[in-house]
Amino acid sequence: MTRSAFLLPIAVIAAPVAAQPAADQLRAASAAQQLFDRDWVLSNWALKFFDRNRDQRLDAAEAATAAAEFRNIADTDSDGRISPYEYRAAREFILARY
């Protein structure tokens, strides 16, 4: 009985911690989808190269993959952030190349 009394608080504490990465992934996927919803150039590029099921919509996984590739293109100084200048330059690159 005392052993289960000690395990219950651990389980209660661990549950929210285990759910946190899923919540972070959901926020990241939502942000990625918003990126492509706001910009027609990026949306067309993402649909062309990352819409695996060809349904003309980006699901969360497709948007996350496209956003990661956009980050690779745009983050030219490798600081982990995309400045407005980097965003415009990457957008122009995508528009000219694809």
Strand content: under 5%
Largest sheet: number of strands, sense, barrel closure: none
* pLDDT averaged over residues: 80
Q: What is the β-strand count? A: 0
| SSE arrangement, N to C | HHHH
* Secondary structure: helix percent: over 70%
Q: What spatial form do the alpha-carbon principal axes imply?
A: globular
- State Rg: 19 Å
Q: Could you list the spans in which at least 5 consecutive residues all have pLDDT below 50?
A: 2-20
Assign the structural class, choosing from mainly alpha, mainly beta, alpha/beta, alpha+beta, or little secondary structure.
mainly alpha
Distance between the termini: 65 Å
Structure report:
- It is globular and about 30 Å long.
- Mean pLDDT is 80; it is low at 2-20.
- Helices cover 79% and strands 0% of the residues.
- It starts with a helix and ends with a helix.
- Helix 1 packs across helix 3 (60-74) and helix 2 packs across helix 3.
- The protein is mainly alpha-helical.
